[in-house]
Amino acid sequence: MRTQVAIIGGGPSGLLLSQLLHRAGIDTVVLERQSRDYVLGRIRAGVLEWGAVEMLREAGVGKRVDAEGLPHDGTYIATRNRGFRIDFRRHTGQQVMVYGQTEVTRDLYAARDAMDGKVIHGVEGVTIHGADTDAPHVTYTLDGTGHRLDCDFVAGCDGFHGVSRKTIPASVLKEFERVYPFGWLGVLSETPPVSHELIYAQHERGFALCSMRHAALARYYVQVPLTDKAEDWSDDAFWAELKRRIPADAAETLITGPSIEKSIAPLRSFVAEPMRWGRLFLVGDAAHIVPPTGAKGLNLAVSDVHYLYHGLVQHYQGEDEGIDRYSERALARVWKSERFSWSMTTLLHTFPERNAFEHRMQEAELDYLESSDAAQASLAENYVGLPY
Ligand code: RFL
Ligand code: PHB
Q: What angle do CA 270, 78, 293 make, to 5 degrees?
């Protein structure tokens, strides 16, 4: 089989890239290890930057996000003795859109089906060959039979644990990492969200977040030690802990119910450089991970797709500037989102090893954020998303 762009991974970045390229007349094949139901069962991101929404519209999949997404003009930051609102609209003139990653992926699958896009599920042993030559190819096994896919380019959209990044020789790839000493225990429940905007709560027992998917589906998180296991947390224990950490008025009005999903995600910051090796491009989580505190993971995957999509379209029009500068352009935005996600994580979490000085620094930082318009404008600017 032959295609122009072989895409490894059918998560949001792989599907969006495939959809955009197909609309531009560029042929792709997406190779996904899991089944479609498995991919759609993963509960992950919930907040889209406006630029990401515009990319979905550009890909022809903006209808449902526009109809069902919840535009948010601001967010709350809370501590035990105070709470304040960051007004995105006032500071930036922009909003964000609350719309689940599951729904983005569902919309992209529907669009790929409608265009007869080639998305192959259940592939095993994906291996990239000759990425540093002019004629790369990918081999894989499907239902026990070996296959070969020849291509012009390979897009590595296969997430943090994929094969693409590992294909780049260690002598070329530089990795930067911070692993945080805690995770987020997340619960999804079919209850009305406690607040019409998100609440990011700093508390000495640990961070908590009140989020949502829609009017009847709430998403909550609490910071937990990495040694905790989701199955050891009863629903009652989760609700009790959440109520302790959020402002009293929210705790009083919180409507609880059975969890329909409960899982723990570890927090990590990670960047691999460069994001291109020959004819292989890394996209999204394959190249970088952010802790979820800034809601940037999915949004960064979308901005990577933006740069690569335009670079590939240019290439097929005879101009290589876009693909030649892909890594540099993507990384410039990645590092700024890494900085923001790291600073939000540091500001709002309880670090077991913090000393008295560092505690006071955290308090002063929160105090500054509450009292300074400039600090709030900076948070707002980063939260709604830096320009592409
Ligand atoms: P994905 O979504 O991981 O998709 C990669 C796809 O590649 C497939 N794959 C392979 N396919 C073929 N061969 C192989 N060898 C393969 N290896 C892997 C996988 O099955 C998968 O389908 O990466 P992508 O597309 O770059 O998208 C990135 C986003 O998914 C990610 O940044 C966010 O979900 C991160 N993230 C969150 N971001 C937020 O902004 N807010 C959140 O609340 C949030 N929560 C999360 C998250 C990520 C999590 N992970 C990765 C554990 C919660 C979790 C649990
Ligand atoms: C979510 O709704 O899952 C969510 C929202 C904001 C974040 C992280 C996760 O910062």
A: 15
